[in-house]
């Protein structure tokens, strides 16, 4: 069970946590304090080890139960038979001959698939607490079975995926199975918003900000739009944009100083500022992505008025957005519909120009969710559009199907290493130049978009259902033929007999 060297290295911490829980804290205030003192780790690492130890201990207790003292459930309390009439247990005068010692049925925790995946080496130990935090806890709206199924879904595609991406997938899954929770989270963070001014000991003015979801998205968009050249943003821009980007790269100020000046300039100028002088071609704003089905998901209130209950997500960080916020954004900026078929192909514009249009870039952001290289977490706003068919070499068109998003580093890698990107049945694959043996290996380029992953999941479910239906029909047909062959043709069932007619039909 503990064959993996990586997991074996974790076992002492799990044993330590188990001892802490069962044997006491030896004067330390919390289990985290004790683990930190004994291991010398940081408080964050100690907290992670305690959480992981608790999770693995709970799963082990349910899946590999050990013997309990006769007549007890491990808590010292006597057990009762199913009818509640006969006590068995620690009472020495209680009859024992012929009495079955009852044992509680172990309850397998919802996170057992995660701890099992650690033992099997599918995910690293640090990913468990991140995934558990993203999926949340069982409650009235979300059952244990729903969370267990979500954990299994994450593990199924977890190979080679880093912990942060697994955490993002966990948060998206929680939003999918608990759309009401998206609204509750936004409301809670909106109530907790604050902007507090302070002063250091030497008199320097400071500020402390706790953002709500929408305010944070706006701030990130403002800073991200202005700082893209310093953070490795797209390079394929017009001459004016290139000149501005070069000035920013050569700026002697630190990134923190530039961000401060950007925000102060925006506050001072307000709505009368010319935003293009500060932010360039990509203006700050919030892009919310959702399916047509979610857009049409509405629930009537007590007065009969319908309100939007479907959810979406922010384009860049994939955080869930509740229906109430989406309706407000629709009032402000309207809707830009993007149609795609079941294979994920969208908007075949086919313009004869080098650069993809802004609308095409928006559509690719919805489909790709960021850089398409596996393991890269670069958001859509920091990517460039790569032409699958080289413009000069293959007279490539700027259709959406022939373009995908890549961060500048991986875009440069694909060109310098002379890699090709191929689209096969709606999915994208990178192919390195053939090696000595001429082998060409397809490397999957997965979408980072929750919308695209959900489309793939639904397509897989539909394919499985179609296969099951076909198998059922084939079995039924085979049984019918077998039954007919065994009994022979029934009376009247030959070519000379007239067709049967239901009485009363003419």
TrEMBL record:
<protein>
    <submittedName>
        <fullName>HNH endonuclease</fullName>
    </submittedName>
</protein>
<dbReference type="Pfam" id="PF02720">
    <property type="entry name" value="DUF222"/>
</dbReference>
<keyword id="KW-0255">Endonuclease</keyword>
<dbReference type="InterPro" id="IPR003870">
    <property type="entry name" value="DUF222"/>
</dbReference>
<keyword id="KW-0540">Nuclease</keyword>
<feature type="domain" description="HNH nuclease">
    <location>
        <begin position="359"/>
        <end position="412"/>
    </location>
</feature>
<keyword id="KW-0378">Hydrolase</keyword>
<feature type="region of interest" description="Disordered">
    <location>
        <begin position="463"/>
        <end position="506"/>
    </location>
</feature>
<dbReference type="InterPro" id="IPR003615">
    <property type="entry name" value="HNH_nuc"/>
</dbReference>
<feature type="compositionally biased region" description="Low complexity">
    <location>
        <begin position="463"/>
        <end position="475"/>
    </location>
</feature>
<dbReference type="GO" id="GO:0004519">
    <property type="term" value="F:endonuclease activity"/>
</dbReference>
């Amino acid at each position: 069970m503990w064959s993996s060297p990586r997991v074996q290295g974790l076992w002492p911490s799990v044993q330590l946590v188990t001892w802490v829980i069962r044997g006491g804290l030896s004067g330390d205030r919390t289990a985290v304090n004790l683990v930190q003192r004994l291991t010398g780790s940081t408080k964050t690492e100690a907290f992670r080890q305690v959480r992981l130890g608790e999770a693995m201990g709970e799963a082990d207790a349910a899946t590999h139960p050990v013997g309990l003292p006769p007549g007890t459930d491990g808590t010292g309390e006597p057990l009762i038979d199913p009818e509640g009439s006969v006590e068995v247990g620690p009472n020495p005068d209680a009859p024992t001959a012929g009495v079955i010692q009852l044992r509680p049925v172990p309850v397998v925790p919802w996170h057992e698939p995660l701890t099992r995946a650690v033992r099997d080496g599918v995910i690293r130990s640090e990913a468990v607490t991140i995934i558990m935090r993203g999926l949340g806890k069982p409650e009235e709206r979300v059952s244990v079975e729903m969370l267990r199924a979500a954990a299994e879904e994450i593990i199924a595609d977890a190979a080679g995926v880093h912990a942060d991406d697994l955490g993002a997938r966990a948060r998206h899954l929680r939003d999918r199975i608990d759309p009401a929770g998206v609204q509750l989270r936004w409301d809670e963070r909106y109530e907790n918003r604050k902007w507090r001014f302070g002063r250091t000991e030497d008199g320097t003015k400071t500020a402390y900000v706790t953002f709500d979801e929408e305010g944070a998205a706006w701030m990130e968009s403002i800073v991200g739009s202005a700082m893209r050249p310093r953070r490795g943003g797209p390079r394929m821009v017009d001459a004016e944009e290139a000149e501005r980007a070069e000035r920013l790269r050569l700026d002697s100020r630190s990134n923190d100083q530039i961000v401060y000046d950007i925000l102060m300039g925006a506050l001072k100028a307000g709505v009368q500022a010319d935003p293009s002088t500060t932010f360039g071609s990509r203006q700050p704003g919030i892009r919310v992505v959702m399916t047509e089905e979610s857009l049409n998901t509405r629930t009537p209130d007590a007065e009969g008025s319908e309100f939007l209950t479907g959810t979406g997500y922010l384009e860049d960080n994939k955080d869930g957005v509740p229906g109430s916020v989406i309706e407000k954004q629709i009032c402000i900026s309207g809707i830009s519909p993007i149609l795609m078929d079941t294979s994920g192909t969208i908007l075949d514009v086919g313009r004869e120009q080098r650069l993809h249009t802004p609308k095409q870039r928006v559509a690719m952001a919805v489909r790709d969710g960021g850089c398409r290289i596996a393991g890269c977490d670069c958001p859509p706003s920091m990517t460039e559009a790569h032409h699958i068919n080289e413009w000069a070499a293959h007279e490539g068109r700027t259709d959406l199907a022939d373009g995908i998003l890549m961060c500048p580093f991986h875009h440069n890698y694909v060109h310098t290493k002379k890699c090709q990107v191929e689209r096969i049945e709606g999915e994208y694959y990178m192919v390195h130049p053939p090696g000595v043996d001429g082998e060409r290996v397809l490397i999957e380029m997965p979408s980072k978009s929750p919308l695209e992953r959900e489309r793939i999941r639904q397509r897989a479910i539909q394919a499985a259902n179609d296969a099951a239906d076909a198998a059922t029909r084939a079995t039924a047909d085979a049984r019918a033929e077998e039954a007919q062959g065994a009994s022979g043709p029934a009376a009247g069932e030959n070519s000379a007999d007239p067709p049967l007619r239901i009485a009363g039909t003419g």
